[in-house]
User: What shape does this take?
Amino acid sequence: MSNDNLIELKNIRKKYTLGKVELTALSIDELSIKKGEYVAILGPSGSGKSTLMNILGCLSNPTSGSYLLNDQEVAELSKNELATIRNQTIGFIFQSFNLLEYASAAENVMLPLVYRGTSHSVRKAKAENLLNRVGLGDRLNHKPSELSGGQCQRVAIARALVNDPGVVLADEPTGNLDSKSGEQIIHLFEEWVSEGKTIIIVTHDLNLAKRAKRIIRILDGKIESDTAVESCQEA
Amino acid sequence: MMILQQILKNMLSNRTRLILTILAIAWGTFSITSMLAVGEGLRVTFGNAVDQSGDGALIVAGNKSSRTYKGTPSGTKVEFRQQDIDNLQESMKGKATISAVYDWNVSIFRGAKARHGAPVIAIDENYAKLHGVKVKPGGRFINYQDDKNHRQVIVLGTRTLKKLFKRGENPIGKYVYLGNQPFTVIGVQKETMQLLSTSSSPDYFVNWIPYHTYQELTKDLSYTQVIVAPNELSDIPIFEKEIINNIALSRQVDPEDPSIFEIINLQKEKEKLNVFFSSIEIVLGIIGALTLVVAGVGIANVMAISVKRSTREIGIRMAVGAKTSDILIYYALEALITTAIGGLIGIFMAKGLVGVINLIPINSEIMDKIGSPKPILSFNVMFFVIFILGLVGFVSGIFPARKAASIQPAEALRHEQ
Assistant: This one.
């Protein structure tokens, strides 16, 4: 295996116990994603794709297996080191935005910078810059309740990118949006991919997945296929 | 600064929760502070009552012997004579103040009204120093000149006053009769709570006349009772022995006979009372502690629910890089700010209540008698209450936060609000 892999999973299992029954939500023998890739993880609901995303994003631990992120074994990291990774290496975009309701757009974008310890002036400049880029330069002081779904998701995207992370994980990023807003989001992703960012989208929407360069199909917690988009379109 | 700003914004954004939390804390602080203020008020009032009953004094009243001794038959009456008093004055000079009185059982008349068997205490010049009788405005107590000039003046206790005078009638300057002798009323005792007395009856029961007036009228030269107030409290047992031995020797009665004198050691009585009030304080303290626990449980409940409802937010914060310590500091500060606001409101409410209670004019004899206890807000109590409730708020805020921060962020994010 070459070392330009950003993400390397081996024998990853995630198990849940429901009462006395043990369920294997995820079972991935091998998966690697390189820097700069634009990947879609495609699967129906309940297929384990969100579980996979949570593990990739260090939001939950696998029950067993090895996960190398930037050649670092995630299982060996402390809680604080994991927090630093979530802060600086990974950017998250959620289907339900997960913004702080009482904070303005700018404050939401600044939140990761607060935990990084960035000074207030730099935080403000970065947040304004990113919100301008996602087309919300005139909505800096609006609260999520004063923004449309598409605008909220763009705030979330700005927040995901504010620490310039190596990889962006997006869980159904267009799931709650109308098609026009969804299209805007996808354009933003494509822009960032062209700038060399790694983007992983988790979705059940084939059309969205097709915009990526590589589609990993998940079913019942297992990888069913892993194909480049051109060959997928041929099939 | 960003964190403080966020906390305040977060708190304000969830007004219902904020108001409920603050109300719970304010109510807890209010109820316990007011309750302890009442306790403090009682403690101070009763404490004053005990202090006002004079420093330690020894009261020795003559009685009867109960056994035959050196030819003196059992049942011999023991009274003090002028010589005994002079001897005592001499031997205790500079070490104690001595007052000798005669407890006179006599009826008091006024027209058709009479009070039979009212104790009338014939007092010497030192009595007022040892037994401060409060006199109602407009009157005065017996003084040295009254005694020296054998004036027929009397200070009435409230019991006699009620018996002989109509309600609202001014007795000062009026005559009452002891037997057939007229006495001018010069004062009326003001009723106060009396926990200890140098006489066998409480002050409102007795009446006072000058000793030498009594002596002139009755030609009686004896005293029934001696009050000894030593400069050094440690001298009390010595004086007690001295009096018993001297009198027993001169009367030829057995000094070991416990019934020749009735002896009251005011110091010992006072200690007993102090024990009593200490136990009242302990009971109030226990009630206060229980109230504090109840308030604490309420606060803990509200704080715990409030933080639990923030689990999803904790998940969001952790997803963007918050460390466990960041989460803890955030919720600890939130808990502290909430508790502080609630605590301050509660204390101001209690202060207001105490102020209002103290404003109400209570013209009741009973209140007057027990020294009109009023609630007192003590700084120590307030500080203690805020400290404890703050601690409870802090701990009950930080534990659910710790729990929320310890679960996997993915799980926290799934938490419904």
